[in-house]
Amino acid sequence: MFDGFLLFTQGRGYPDIPTRRFLRYLVEQLHLPAYCLVDSDPYGFDILATYKFGSMQLAYDANVLRVPEIRWLGVFTSDFEEYCLPDCCQLQLSSEGH
């Protein structure tokens, strides 16, 4: 059972700078855990990687923008089998989808 509080934020797609700085602050100053729930596709993984490792465009600010402590909650590709999710919950990757 969860004994505490939960603070939820969402970046509405790729993480913007204020969201990344806010999350970094919560982890660093308030010692809160950070979790990431994204789609199970290359874009979702890219979003997770941007939070965790930072971005190439802002590499000079990585120390205040990245959150290496963030943990990936899912969605994992194995979840589709494990939870018997119907095929309509999955999208086929196209050549544009990596």
UniProtKB/TrEMBL annotation:
Molecular-function annotations in GO: DNA binding; DNA topoisomerase type II (double strand cut, ATP-hydrolyzing) activity
One Pfam family here: TOP6A-Spo11_Toprim
Signal peptide: none
Domain of life from the UniProt record: Eukaryota
One GO-annotated biological process of the protein: reciprocal meiotic recombination
GO CC annotation, single: nuclear chromosome
Domain (Topoisomerase 6 subunit A/Spo11 TOPRIM) ranges: 9-89
Name of this chain's protein: Topoisomerase 6 subunit A/Spo11 TOPRIM domain-containing protein
Naturally occurring in which organism (per UniProt): Aegilops tauschii subsp. strangulata (Goatgrass)
Organismal lineage: Eukaryota, Viridiplantae, Streptophyta, Embryophyta, Tracheophyta
